[in-house]
Amino acid sequence: MHRAPHLGLVAVALLSVAGCGGSLSPPDGAGGTGGTTGTGGITGIGGAIGPLDARGDITTCVDDVPATPVAGTPCRYLIPAPPCDIADPGHIDVKVDGVRIPRDLTDTNGWDYTDATFTAVDIHGPSCDALTSGAATTVTIAFRVII
Fold it and tell me: Would you list the domain boundaries of the chain?
């Protein structure tokens, strides 16, 4: 009577070895030709399954959102509220007229947060010059999703 549970485990193991359960070697485990190929991860119908698939559509979480200029403070922009609950203002990209500018902790050429509240950014250098002269007109924020 004590052997019945072990027989079930042996049967499942044999089915896996026989091909019903796949393997962890290529092509199944490496995202290769065992399923529909994608960008990596587990493959199958419709392509690779990524870590964010269970959370729903993430395109609204990373789209560019217009930043509001702060009156009386050239090149300071308010960070808008994140468009979804898995994005936050502490992980952003800043774009001027659609071109991503780097974060610059030296405040000479790029952008940085105004303080630890992550509510606004200051833009410095040529990008600020372009904004103040009118050569550039838009500042947008792209929220990066960090898992």
Answer: 1-49, 59-143
